[in-house]
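Table 4 source record.
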Amino acid sequence: MDKSNKNLFSNLKNDLPASLVVFLVALPLCLAIAAASDAPLFSGLIAGVIGGIVVGAISGSALGVSGPAAGLASIVAGAITELGSFEIFLVAVIVSGGIQILLGIAKAGVIGYYFPSSVIKGMLAGIGITIFLKQFQHGLGYDKNPEGLTDFIQADGNNMFYDIYLAFANPTVGPVIICAVSIVILWVWQKEFIQKKRFSNIVQGPLVVVVTGILLNVIFKSIPALAMTQDHIVSIPSIKSVGGFANLFTFPDFTALTNPQVYVIAGTIAIVGSLETLLSVEATDKMDPQKRVTPTNRELIAQGAGNVASGLIGGLPITQVIIRSSTNIMSGGKTKVAAILHGVFLLVCVLAIPNVLNLIPMASLAAILFFVGYKLTRPEIYKQMFNQGIGQFVPFIITIIAIVFSNLLVGIGIGLAIAFIHILWENFKTPYFTELEGADKGKPVTMVLSEQVTFLNKASIIHTLDELPDGILFIIDANKTKMMHPDVLEVFEDFIYNAKTRDIRVETTGFESWTEDSNNLTTEK
């Protein structure tokens, strides 16, 4: 068991402020995705709460955050129309959760290991660009499209770039001032003289930004030239507005269990949601500073349990969401407590203080997401991928372009197609094999790598490394290897990083000729 998970609350000083930031980012996303899905607004909030508390508690992911997914919005909207009511659709959500639980039990989570890192990193960078570009509308006060949707074609029918042009052509003074002040605060908060102060560990920059935004919003109300409209601020329906607490929930119509179409839609949601979750898991693990590995089968079970719970009380389908997960990491989250607390904050604040939340300017949240988007697509990532060769850089850059000019799922599909074409060509030229020697306990265990080691070998290598007994001498022999995919190299780097926790001594041989830039593959003599 990872030491960081033995006492989850030992990292509360990091997880608490990170959960606050994730909560602030997740709040408008939940509402926007519900609106885009043609579902009740509270269904998005319910999914956010369930994704944080239920999925967060069951999941083995240290940093992943779950909630309603933008990638499913069009599927959900079409399904509600096709089934005839939201109550019948909820039955499909429950059934999809059951399918995901069965997939986890059947150990189908292994599919997550077959996504090449070039596509995963391209997905992160593409999402980063999309997040960054989407914020111009909110930062300039042109709030015509909801936050959180990643499609190139916007809700108003215009494309993303045209709406950015309209935002610059039609700015609103109040949001511009708030966004500018917020960016300055976030920039200053990262400076060394602030980070040295003890209070900066608890009072994070994004929290200061939100509080400042609320104060400016209140002040601007008395200044007609700066006053903001309802479009410029977060908008959460209150319990009073819906006629009481009980009316927040919608319950499934189980008579629809005899409707075959329910099962078709449930299967679609389960498959697409599981793929989106596994992609997010892979990306989140790569961003984890501690290089922890999420148990993917357990993650499918957690997502399934979340979807069952969400469907039972009127929530949207749930997946692990890369925007929230990356925000959690960038904000200093250390354990799953951050994800759980973000769900608690959603629940408490929506029920107790909706009037306060409805004072938060979208421009404040835009500033926070500007920084998140930039960190996901910073220039160093492009340089790193370029240095890894054309086989890595081409799928990476094509995935980015496809995501920015279409949407997340289409972009990933195109990136995967390019990556598979490349790797199949490499495998066609030179076949590969891997074998283990000296597997008896108490003797050195040697892994002899073949001439070609591709990302298709990744799952079996991870399985072999996980099954190694503790306290052994493990030798990785790459003397015969002519090409090793960077994904496999990362697996070995992560294994060596964590080997000491299992009292495994690692020796490597044959890596020198093609890992000159790697400082993580060390040889013990």
